[in-house]
Specification:
- The chain is mainly alpha-helical.
- The chain has helices at residues 11-16, 40-50, 59-73, 85-93, 97-107, 111-133, 136-150, 173-192, 215-230, 234-245, 250-257, 261-285, 290-296, 308-329, and strands spanning 154-156, 159-161.
- It folds into two domains: 11-191, no CATH class; 215-324, no CATH class.
- The protein has a two-stranded antiparallel sheet with strand order 1-2.
Length: 330
């Protein structure tokens, strides 16, 4: 998953490991092309019960979310059966309206909604993740990873995409979160175990050695990484040093910069994505074909001999010195 989790990661690994081709099965659903009309009096009732206004969710946005859910579930009627007005009203009133409004407001990035979400669900989300993984450290990592994903780091056509937009309100939000945690844990296990079934794993077998890359290709990748990092601005280098090298969490960095965790998470996501694109360009500029450059990005980070801290700190000093010299000339 190409996201900036709340826990520090591995810089080289994030730069050179390939982006997953598939998307998680629990994700945003497309907005129906023919939204359902809700009578104004009924919408007023649902709006009041959902307490959506303090979350920063507009009435029209809430109505759109309700219409999307009704179109997706057909008011709990069998396919092809049209619901009457009474059945539609009963369907809407049976939803977890407050939790649906909270999920939709969070998916749209409303800060008031995120504050409420954290207060209601973050602690229980971590406890559930620890129970699922059987490990405190792994559970915290799983919960933080999902938490960062829920912020809506993926963008499509300039719009944020959060898995929370797929929540329908038919069941509790807490139950939906636990189900999503299990899904992510299984996805992670499949990736790390190379799709081997659980009952087919031989715990006594030694892991196969990964194939080594040609020295020339590894050298080109190392040089491209160095060049790419040297071209970064000082603020971006600070984020990389703080998150990947100093192992600070998103919360710690956000307190230093006096911004929200979501801002840091989204910026790290865009930064890593931009670095990967720039790294690919530098590899092509070094003489590799596009296919060879893409293949080089699959390299095992352990094959790359580079002192990231020295490189980032040196380039950071150089950048500030250049900036100061430019100011002096003015």
């Amino acid at each position: 998953m190409d996201t900036a989790s709340s826990k520090p990661g591995d810089l080289v690994g994030d730069l050179v490991l390939p982006v997953e081709a598939g998307q998680p099965s629990v994700g945003p659903e497309p907005t129906p092309t023919l939204p359902q009309t809700i009578p104004p009096s009924l919408l007023d009732e649902l709006w009041s019960r959902a307490e959506a206004e303090p979350l920063g969710l507009a009435r029209a946005e809430f109505a759109e979310a309700l219409s999307a859910v009704s179109a997706k579930l057909n008011y709990n009627q069998p396919p092809g059966i049209l619901a009457d007005a009474a059945q539609k009203a009963a369907f809407y009133r049976g939803l977890h309206l407050a939790e649906l409004a909270l999920a939709q407001a969070c998916a749209l990035g409303r800060e008031a909604a995120w504050e409420r979400f954290l207060g209601l669900h973050r602690a229980s989300l971590t406890q559930a993740a620890i129970a699922i993984t059987g490990s405190a450290s792994l559970g915290e990592e799983l919960a933080d990873s999902l938490y960062a994903e829920l912020y809506g780091l993926r963008e499509l056509d300039g719009l944020r995409r959060s898995p929370l937009s797929s929540y329908t309100g038919r069941g509790s939000l807490a139950g939906w979160l636990r189900t999503t945690l299990v899904q992510r844990f299984r996805d992670h296990h499949r990736r790390t175990r190379r799709e081997v079934p659980l009952d087919g794993i031989d715990s006594t077998a030694a892991p196969a050695a990964s194939p080594r890359r040609p020295p020339a290709e590894t050298t080109a990748l190392t040089a491209a990484i160095a060049r790419t990092l040297q071209e970064l601005g000082p603020e971006d280098r600070f984020l990389l040093v703080a998150y990947y090298l100093d192992r600070q969490t998103l919360l710690q960095i956000s307190r230093t910069l006096h911004v929200h965790e979501a801002t840091i998470s989204r910026r790290l996501k865009r930064l890593v994505a931009g670095l990967r694109k720039q790294l690919l360009g530098n590899l092509c500029a070094s003489g590799l074909s596009r296919a060879a450059a893409e293949e080089a990005l699959d390299a095992d980070p352990r094959d790359i001999e580079i002192n990231l801290r020295a490189l980032l700190q040196t380039s950071q000093v150089s950048a500030f010195q250049s900036q100061r010299a430019a100011s002096d000339r003015l």
